[in-house]
Amino acid sequence: MWELTDCIVLYGPDLQPHACNRLVVEGDRITQLVLGEPRLTVEHPTWVVMPGMYNSHTHIGDSCLPDGATGLTLEAGFFRPNGYKYRELAKQPEAEHLRHMTAHLHYMARTGTIGHLDFREQGVYGCQLLRQASEATGVRSLILGQFNTLPFTEAQLQKNLAPLSPEALVELEELLAVADGFSESTMNDLTDAAWMQIRQMTRAHSKLRAIHCLENAAYRETSLAIAGRGDLERALDLFAPHLIIHATVANAEEIALLSQHHSNVVLNPRANANLGLPLPPIAQLLESEANLLLGTDNGLLNSPNLFAELDFTYKVAKSQYGDAVRPDPTDILKMVTSNIRPLLGGDTYGYLETGLPADLVVLDFTQPHLRASRHIPASIVTRVTPEDVLATVRQGKLLYASKAFNWGVD
Ligand SMILES: [Zn+2]
Question: Which CATH architecture has domain 2-51+350-409?
């Protein structure tokens, strides 16, 4: 049994800060949460407990190449088959690659993240490697695999008729045996027939489907040229994705589509900005019925530190709203916590209540820049740094604890 006393807890799916007399963890659950009054401000230096965060879009495999694509375009840096990322990944020795991934999962735990959805390259081998890193660190990796090499020629993609070959179907079966789902770089990397086959197979195996859409205008234009409709429309119709990544250049009709489908949309504004792309329409999406999540994208582009992503997202959204009033910082914080529930369900909540899993982060609000906070959620979103994380806990187990952290153990 572990306990914290006299702290502040962001409580329930609305993340409302409350004084907390006692928080008890037994096994993997929160078994007691003795709450006081709601409290937006820090009255005396204390610890703040928030839900453990989910990073909904990473490529932890290329975290071994920090800033390697500096000066390269999106296509030259990241696209199949010959982009910098794919060329360099193919050269990584297995043991060293695994060490890099494990180190980055530790870094994620240190920065308050308990789980991530990873878009893993290198086929079955790539998925297995990340699975090992996840088991070594306790950080939950939901792995979305992709084909090791693209199963179609450029000419086949242009015709857009061929289904997956028997060999590709075997690889897909093998991928789904080790991964939690399937993703591909863009809709334009496979044929319409292949997308329908993959939808069917992932459904049969109860696996997740994710796709990068509308990262830049070329995604839409290429899709229009090949298939007569944009990549988002095609994805929703043929692939029925659980998760849509980017929506950077989504226009009003596309935002309306995402809203109608109540899509789970992962925004990655730092990665978009780092590639010189437009910023996603965060404010418009916040006004829609889409469920918004946040990701840090390639390790190559960004550190997988969600506090940095929260700060950037909040400020870009404020600028897009064009006033100092919107959005509520709690709505930004939900993108890495309680908004994960509609996507993953089961024993994943992304919020804290009695009886739920002890998936939490303890923040040091005794620090000079936090101990007089007049708005706790705003301070988490804009001021907390990795050094302020005292502990990260998943299902009652410490993934990370700083030297300053101790909790009462019985
Ligand atoms: Zn991605």
Answer: Roll (2.30)
- Residues 345 and 12: their CA atoms lie apart, in Å, by 15
Distance from residue 116's CA to the centre of ligand 1 (Å): 12
Instruction: Classify burial at 23, counting beta carbons within 10 Å of its beta carbon; exposed 0-12, middle 13-18, buried 19 or more.
Output: buried
Query: Residue 160 C-alpha to ligand 1 middle, in angstroms?
Result: 23
Alpha carbon of 76 to ligand 1 centroid (Å) = 15
The answer, yes or no, to whether residue 406 has pLDDT greater than 90, is no
Q: Tell me: the pLDDT tens digits for 242-287?
A: 999 999 999 999 999 999 999 999 999 999 999 999 999 999 999 9
- CA pair distance 16, 377, nearest whole angstrom: 9
Structure tokens that stand for 16 in this block: 């409302």
CA of 266 to the centre of ligand 1 (A): 10
Give me ligand 1 centre to Cα 2, in Å: 38
Q: Which CATH number fits domain 53-344: 3.40.605.10, 3.20.20.140, 3.30.70.3270, 3.30.70.270?
A: 3.20.20.140
Please report which confidence band the pLDDT of residue 410 belongs to, taking 50, 70 and 90 as the band edges: low
Q: How far is the CA of 406 from the centre of ligand 1 (A)?
A: 37
